[in-house]
Amino acid sequence: PSSGFQSDQFRTVEFMLGLKDARHIAVQKDRPEAQATLRDALEAPSLWDDANAALAARGFALPEHVLSRDWTQPYVPSPEVEAAWAEVYLDTHMWWDLYQLAEKLLDVDDAFATWRHRHAATVARIIGGKRGTGGSAGVSYLESTVGRRCFPELWTLRNRL
To answer: DSSP 3-state helix, strand, coil percentages of the chain (rounded to 5)?
Structure first.
């Protein structure tokens, strides 16, 4: 079987991008090295956490619950984070480096969603509507993941611009 559920590398990338779900560690119960790598990524700040820390370091007021949260938990979008990043977008001249960082993060997020979509389409082509090899609902599960965003406020701030 070759399920994404079994790919510790894929889950590590997800964790590093901020899509954390500790339940994926148990899948690697027979591979302690993989579990350790996943646990390290789960317990570390994600790329989005680091980007928000950089924003705060530049003087933007972000809530403490965003800056020193439990890294093992899924990120919860914050209106204050959205407002701060929107400020960057409203004055790109002043905040050019942060704006460029945000745009590169969006490129990564967009590419990840595109990959998920293509993966779902490929699986549909190969197995149709059957259950996935890792025990998931197959294509319907994969399609449900396409809309996941690693850097959510960079998408929602567009409503403010």
So the answer is: 65, 0, 35
